[in-house]
Model the fold of this input.
Amino acid sequence: MAKVSIGLRGWRFDEDEVFDEEGNVRPLVEMDDDTVYRLVRLSAILGEPCDACWLQEDDVEDCNAAAIVYGEPLSEVVLCERHEADFLYWFREEGGSEYAGSDELQDAFHEWFVSGNRAPEGYAGLDHVEENPSDLPEPPTEPEQCGLDEVDEQVDEMSEAEREAMDLDTDVFDV
Ligand SMILES: [Zn+2]
Done:
């Protein structure tokens, strides 16, 4: 089954689960809860600034927009192209991988970054991902630029009861 990223690189979805034959987003109620959870979270963080930029800049205007997302919803790390290498270096070389799948991933990376740590000059993060794909973030593919508006619309149209039935934690909407 083909995997696609939507909006940001990083999180990947089964194309057949999310989109129908015409490329339209399927009804959320037909998807796995985890898929819905990630899609809804993704629509909330799309357009947000890169975490690493934001930790360095006072003004959101000076931050790059996030291009990639790693980690689990609500403890995800979003990064611009420039800072992705720092994250991957931390993950591979500085013990970050022990936080894989953990809700402490974001805090742990932020702490490391705020302490002044960076990837060495020229660290080729993406090559390292390819070497050991099993426990690392997925290699990049160009994200689909469609779909999240439809997710938003579906969520808006849902009643409170429907959201509860899907166990959609409303925290996923917060950024
Ligand atoms: Zn950045």
Notes: The chain has one domain: 3-166.
